[in-house]
Amino acid sequence: MRTPSCYNTLTRSLEVIESSPGEERNLSLYTCGPTVYAHAHIGNFRAYVFEDLLQRHLQERGFVVHRVMNLTDVDDKTIRGAHAAGIALADYTRPFKEAFFEDAKTLRLLPADAYPEATDPEQIARMITMIGTLMERGHAYQAEDGSVYFRIASFADYGKLAHVDLEGQRPGQRVASDEYDKEAVADFALWKSWVAEDGAVGWESPWGRGRPGWHIECSAMATGILGETIDIHCGGVDNIFPHHEAEIAQCECAAHGKAPFVRYWMHCAHLMVEGSKMSKSAGNYFTLRDLLDKGWSGREVRYALLAVHYRGGLNFTFEGLAAARTALGRLDAWRERLREVAGGEVSVEAPDAAAEELFAMLDDDLNISGALAVLFETLRESNRRMDQGVCTPKQGRGLLEWLARVDGVLALEPDDLAEGIPAEVEELAAARATAREAKEWKKSDEIRDQIAALGWVVKDTKDGQRISKS
Ligand SMILES: [Zn+2]
Fold first, then answer.
1. Distance 241 CA to ligand 1 centre (A)
2. Is residue 410 predicted with pLDDT exceeding 80?
3. Mean pLDDT throughout 1-6?
4. In 128-155, which positions are buried (b, 16+ CB within 10 angstroms) versus exposed (e)?
5. How far is the CA of 69 from the centre of ligand 1 (A)?
6. How far is the CA of 358 from the centre of ligand 1 (A)?
7. What is the pLDDT of residue 323?
8. Residues 251-260: what's their mean pLDDT?
9. Who's near 12: CB < 8 A, 6+ residues apart?
């Protein structure tokens, strides 16, 4: 089987992922991004790492993924934070946006094609247009408080994603807050009219000065960039209701029921820390930076977040991080050993059947436990062969090539491989090779020291120089 499948929250069943008719191998992917009022915590990053694995695996299977991730830079929390800090909203959110991109790089998350920001005037215009369409079609109304609300009673399908039973619930209450009780089936705000606490934050609209609700931000940016129907939409399980339910209501009503908003919904389960819910007061609340400060690497955190299936609850522990460190150490040692066995061998022996098995595991709703089991079984088996001296250079090279393909999906390679060697270091290494050919040993040593000063080590092997991070 070479076709990936996923568990679709909407249909509650396993489905084969296919492109829309006429789209060849194209897939659009929308992932709810961070609200930039603080540093993202490891629970947020668990969802982003799962989405990264999904994107990488789909690409390995030959899909061209068009991915959009939004940045929520205006909502109740960002406004509150800016107000408390006594600075403008944009000045408050900017460092958190920058920190998010840095953290994403540390965790080796592939960049999205676009990161629309909710406060971008172009996006605000899209939101206003969508609200206008909902008003025209009777799906929205302006209340006495000046805010515009979505009329849940106008959309019979409301509740289809969260499988919320609307029977016995009396729609009609209104909530201005973006986040509310799971059980409440309430008309939610599309446009919040300006209040004194908003200060300088606000945009003009046909319904007066105000700001968009969180749900309309995602709906307008997702469909505005990716089109009326999106192939895959991801997020955390806590986004299902009300956020994603509201996104469906807004988009399908704006499209006049012509187009389903999303074909496959995928949601990542919660993360616990040391067995309990992460909270600042319990002292078990971690950002990525907190873990880096404690001496863990981005690669180790990535492994720990990746190694548990996305739909299963992840209990994040320091024991788990230590296990990640051990596992990565084994992979690195294996890679080194394979390099020695492969030597200068370039021709590749066809990889054995086990190699394909790893990707077949991931086809099954990203079965990461199965994939890691195949990886470590391959490691054990080839180490056994190398112990016995029966692993040929061709086989060694074949395994290295396979490992490079696996790295393309799991991204667990050592930092120097992940980052690539800087051009400056490459140039110095080339100059050093020339010096060595000319037997200019002193010069060669000087260049080696220059390379070391840049944080890299150059070793001489029988196949020439090998450069790695010091
Ligand atoms: Zn969203």
1. 11
2. yes
3. 84
4. bebbbbbbeeebbbbeeeebbbbbbebb
5. 9
6. 32
7. 98
8. 90
9. 163
Task: List pLDDT tens digits, range 33-79.
Answer: 999 999 999 999 999 999 999 999 999 999 999 999 999 999 999 99
The mean pLDDT value for 202-231 works out to: 97
Specify whether the CB–CB gap between 215 and 178 falls below 8 A.
yes
Burial class (CB in 10 A: 0-12, 13-18, 19+), 11: exposed
Spacing, Cα 216 to ligand 1 middle (Å): 9
Distance 444 CA to ligand 1 centre (A): 55
User: What pLDDT score was predicted for residue 1?
Assistant: 47
- Would you state the torsion angle of the CA atoms of residues 13, 309, 247, 14, taken in this order, to the nearest 10 degrees? -10
* Cα 7 from Cα 455, distance rounded (Å): 44
Structure tokens at 304: 């720990």
DSSP 3-state assignment of 240?
helix
Residue 14 has which token pair?
A: 């396993």
Task: Name, in order, each residue with C-beta under 8 angstroms of 170's C-beta and a sequence gap of 6 or more.
Answer: none
**Phi-psi category of 71—alpha, beta or left, where left has phi over 0 and alpha has psi -120 to 50?**
beta
